[in-house]
Amino acid sequence: SGNGMLTSPLIARSTFTDNTASRTGGAIFVDGESKIVNSTFISNTADNDGGAIYSSVQSEKLEIFNAVFVGNTANIDGDEGTGGAIFIEENDDNSKIVNAVFSGNTASMSGGAIYIEETSPKIVSASFSENEAYESGGAIYNSEDFEGGSSPTIVNSIFYGNSGAGNGDQIFNEGENSEPTVSYSLVEGGCSSIPGTICGNG
Fold first, then answer.
1. Can you count the helices (H) and strands (E) in the chain?
2. Which partner for 137 in 20, 158, 172, 189 could form a disulfide, CB atoms 3.0-4.6 Å apart?
3. Residue 131: closest CA among 87, 86, 77, 170
4. What pLDDT, on a 0 to 100 scale, did the predictor assign at position 7?
5. Closest CA to 89 of 124, 61, 69
6. Per DSSP, what are the bridge partners of residue 163?
7. 3-class SS of residue 191
C-alpha cells in the first residue's frame, strides 16, 4: 500500500501479464492479508525481488489458490534478484500456496520460483518445472537470518527440471534452521539428496 495502511484484497479470476516494478513485486506488492484465487501471472518483472508477487514483512497472510506463474523474472539483468515468481517475507507462518504451477520463472540470485525468508508457509499440490536461479535454489530457496530459518511444509508436489547454478537445483536450505518437510511428493534426484530437508511419508 505504501501509505502505512494495511490492505486485505481478494483477487479472483485475473491475469497479470508484462507488468514491471522498479523495486519489488512486478505485479503485486502485498501489505496485510491477501487472497489470490484462479489467477495467472505471466512475464512480470521486478528489478529486485518477487518477479510477480512480493509479500512484505507486514503481511499477515498470503493465500494463493489455483494459480499459474510462468516466465516471471526477478532482476534478470542484475545480481540482486530473489524469488522469480514470489518472495515471501516473515509473516507468522500463515501463508499457503495450494494447487499452483510454477514454470520458467527466473531469479538472478536465489529462488527461481519462490524465495522464502524466515517463515514457514504451506505449499500443497504445486508443480515446479524449468525454473532457474543463477545462484541457489532453482525452485525454492529457504533463507536463514538472525531471527531463524524457513521451514515450509510441502505436500503432494512435483519438482523436476529446475536449475540452481550455484547449489540446490530443486530446493536449497540456508543454515541449520531451515528445515522444510516434504511429503507425498516427486523430487528429481530424491528428497534425501537435499541437505537439511526432512523427508516425510511418500
1. 0, 23
2. 172
3. 170
4. 66
5. 61
6. 132
7. helix
| 80 Cα distance to chain centroid | 16
Rounded to a whole number of angstroms, the CA Rg of the chain reads: 15
Distance CA(178)–CA(189), nearest Å, equals 20
The residue count of the chain comes to 202
Mean pLDDT, the chain, rounded, equals: 92
> pTM of this prediction?
0.94
Residues sharing a CB contact under 8 Å with residue 198, sequence separation 6 or more, in sequence order? 179, 180, 181, 182
Give the span between the Cα atoms of 43 and 71, in whole angstroms: 5
- Reported as a single tens digit per residue, the pLDDT across 34-43 is 999 999 999 9
Predicted local distance difference test score (pLDDT) of residue 2: 47
- For residue 105, what are the CA distances in angstroms to 112, 148, 195? 6, 27, 23
Per the structure block, which three cell numbers stand in for 198? 526432512
> How far lies 92's CA from each of 9, 80, 106, 145, in Å?
19, 25, 26, 15
